[in-house]
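Appendix C: a fully annotated inverse folding record. The material below is reproduced so that readers can follow the format used throughout the book. The structure is listed first as tokens, followed by the designed sequence.
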């Protein structure tokens, strides 16, 4: 059975991105998600490295959402486990250059800004911290967003280069 062309292209692009930045990554179950695992790190340290990497791109400091805390707090009312994450934060930010490219292509691309990168750890996976982000739309602006996200994630992971490994699902 042949692999669909779009999937082939996406996998090739991911492989090239991983090779380019020498930071192993895997595609998450969601075809639009990219995840990097950083071994022997703390969420606070990876979060600081991420905000530094965003600043190095000339982007204003990101907003921080305490996603894991929200899930833990709402677990009793919603009926899910409170310990889905040991810690989970989502950082959102916007590049004026990328936003302008996306908006120029289509006013409806407003939904693709701000960009976001998650930093999280799992209860059963002590010592590993993950970076995750969604790929953007298939357009020149989307590719610019993807390249920016990949650069920021790779720069963040490079701070822990001795400890980067492929994320597994």
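Designed amino acids, in order:
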């Amino acid at each position: 059975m042949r692999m669909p062309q779009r999937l082939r292209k996406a996998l090739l692009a991911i492989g090239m991105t991983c090779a380019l930045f020498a930071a192993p990554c895997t595609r998450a179950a969601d075809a639009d998600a990219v995840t990097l695992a950083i071994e022997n790190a703390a969420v606070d340290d990876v979060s600081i490295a991420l905000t530094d990497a965003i600043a190095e791109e000339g982007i204003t400091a990101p907003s921080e959402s305490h996603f894991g805390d929200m899930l833990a707090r709402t677990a009793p009312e919603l009926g899910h486990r409170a310990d889905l994450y040991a810690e989970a934060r989502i950082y959102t930010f916007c590049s004026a250059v990328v936003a302008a490219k996306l908006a120029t292509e289509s006013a409806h691309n407003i939904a693709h800004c701000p960009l976001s990168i998650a930093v999280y750890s799992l209860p059963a996976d002590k010592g590993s911290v993950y970076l995750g982000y969604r790929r953007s739309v298939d357009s020149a602006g989307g590719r610019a967003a993807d390249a920016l996200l990949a650069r920021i994630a790779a720069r963040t992971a490079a701070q822990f280069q001795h400890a980067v490994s492929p994320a597994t699902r």
